[in-house]
Amino acid sequence: MNGTLNGNLNLIGYGLSAIGPGVGIGLIFAAYINGVARQPEARGMLQPIAFLGFALAEALALFGLVLAFVL
Amino acid sequence: MSPLVLAAGEGFTPPGPEDFWWPIVGSDASNWTLTRPAVVALFSVALIAWFFLAATKRRSIIPGKLQFVGEGAYGFIREGVGRDLIGSKDFRRFMPLLFTQFTFILVNNVFGIIPLIQFPTMSRIAFPIGLTVLTYVVYHTVGFRKKGFVGYLKDLVPPGLPTWIVPFIFLLEFVDKFITRPLTLSLRLFANMFAGHLLLLVFILGAEHMILDLGPALKVAGILSGVLAVVMTFFELLVEVLQAYIFTLLTALYIGGALAEEH
Question: How much is the ipTM here?
Answer without folding.
Answer: 0.74
